[in-house]
Amino acid sequence: MIKVESLEYKYEDGTKALKNVNIDLDKGNIIGIIGSNGSGKSTLFLNILGILKPSQGTIKYNNTPLKYDKKSLRNYRKEVTMVFQDPERQLFYSRVYDDIAFALRNLNMSEDEIRKKVELTLDRVKALNLMEKPTHFLSYGQKKRIAIGGAIVMDSKVILLDEPTSGLDPAMTEEVISIIKELSDEKKLVVSSHDMDFIYEVCDYVYIISKGEILGEGVPEEIFLKSKLLKDAGLDKPWLVKIHEYLGIPLVKNENELLKIKLIKESI
Amino acid sequence: MLLIDKYAYTNRLTNTNPYIKFAIVVIALAMATITTSIYINLSIQIIMSMLTTVVAGIPINKYFKFLFIPSTFLVLSILTILISISRVDIYAWRIEIFNYYVGITESALQESILLSTRVFSAMASTFFLGLTTPLNNIIRVLKKMYLSNVLIELLVLIYRFTFIFLEEAMEIHTGQELKFGYSNMKNSLRSTGLLISSLFTRLILRYRDMVVVLECKLYDGEFKIGD
Fold it and tell me: Which of chain A's residues have a Cβ under 8 Å away from the Cβ of B212?
């Protein structure tokens, strides 16, 4: 899969946006990249996508270093794609159907095949009823769903999601979580966020990034116990970790498990 | 978002076959261009306006507002055809200023009337298409007519950027207004200047984002529209 090896990225003015970043996407199925605003998450994603070229270090896909000529990049991006933070910027066409079909048309698929795939995708993101709608009529949450759809329709192997839950209401956040969990059965997902509860529930491996450097990494149940590390990165603990620490309740992965414990306790 | 666009997507004729609508409009435009009869032009104009307002259900007051903008240009240009200056009195109606005559000749009057009915009927026809047909459908028709891809791409991009432009401009304007940026003449001028300059940088940023998105969606230099 994808390996980022001692990557460094400098802006034109020489400031380093990323310093010695090492990431291995084999360590989990849903990898979380967490960091405060301006910590370099988005820059890292653009490097992984091959949009930005690292000043030092390499990105390896299936153990071969990324090549930056047009053809290799195009082939690479069939396998690795991204859902951007702001769906408004990602939606391009004015009709939902056309927008999702865009990448497929660029791959010269037949219209029949495209229709099948678009319908399947819209069903997966629970937006089949929006198919004929103009994209600028949609609510923010609906746009987000379509933007995610536009990425999964490509059948890529890796999807990077930049802040997939930012700006969403609780119900929509839950929906995105369930979409992400479903997707992870067949794809590798990389999620950036500073919503700790979300990352804690969804991810199975986490990297903490601060000021362009990886401060720490590990499975969420361990990494979120390291108070100082989180504080240095400008982050907070998920509420499930907090109640574990403050109230001595066993550390669980999500709210449902918490309920189960409660039920078990009551039955005893 | 643009009101015109909203109507295009929500009127009663949105889902009518775009080829039929397009054909009607092309025939109407051709007739208006060829004919020299005022009555044909007037009837085209009336039929098209009826189709747009009564059949498609665009509110009449909004319809006239839309027509008003190009009409002002039209009136100005018709005036220049209508009125002329000469030393010789050849006018049906004139005023005299320092040995010059400023007035309207009979032929200019006839020409102007024909021209304005022609332009209005053409305008009513294009408005019918624009207000009842979403751009995607128009593009589909143009594609079927083998219009060059370059022009279609331009159309797609211009359409997309019109929205980006308006969105950003409105966002900046609201921000400024909340900070009393338009409370008096001096502030308004300054705010307008700021709006223009920050609009420019914002558009460049949006353009950059768009390039990244296009890269991710495997864009290879051609906007594909589909059937």
Answer: 46, 49, 51, 84
Residues of B in contact with A88 (CB under 8 A): 167
Residues of chain A found within 8 Å of residue B1, distances taken between Cβ atoms:
136-137
CA dihedral A85, A89, A91, A92 (to 10 degrees): -150
SS3 for B115?
helix
Residues A92, B134: C-beta atoms closer than 8 Å: no
Q: Does B212 touch chain A (CB under 8 A)?
A: yes
Examine the pLDDT at B1 and tell me if it is beyond 60: no
pLDDT tens digits for range B37-75: 999 999 999 999 999 999 998 999 999 998 898 899 989
β-sheet with B83-86: strand ranges across: B83-86, B100-104, B93-97
CA torsion angle A167 A170 A171 A175 (round to 10): 70
Which residues in A lie closer than 8 A to residue B9 (C-beta atoms)? 134, 137
Q: What global pTM score does this model have?
A: 0.80
* CB-based contact A95 B136, cutoff 8 Å: yes
Local structure of B57: helix, strand or coil: coil
The CA distance from A90 to the nearest CA of chain B, in Å, is 6
CA–CA gap between residue A120 and residue B101 (Å, rounded): 75
C-alpha Rg value of chain B to the nearest Å:
23
- The token duo for A61 is 């896909």
Q: Which residue of B has its CA nearest to A92?
A: B160
Name the more confident of B90 and B212: B212
* B95-116: average pLDDT: 87
**Inter-chain residue contact A136 with B134, CB threshold 8 Å:** no
pLDDT in tens, A185-219: 889 999 999 889 999 999 999 999 999 999 999 99
Q: What residue has token string 């990431």?
A: A23
**How many Å apart are CA B130 and CA A149, to the nearest integer?**
30
Please return the burial class of A2, using the count of CB atoms within 10 Å of its CB with bins 0-12, 13-18 and 19+: buried
pLDDT at A93 over 90: no
Nearest CA in chain B to A71: B220
pLDDT band at residue A133, thresholds of 50, 70 and 90?
confident
Is A49 in contact with B216 (Cβ distance < 8 A)?
A: yes
Mutate to test the interface with B, among A69, A71, A94, A190 (most CBs of B within 10 A): A94
In this predicted model, what pLDDT tens digit does every residue of B139-160 receive, in sequence order? 888 888 888 888 888 887 888 7
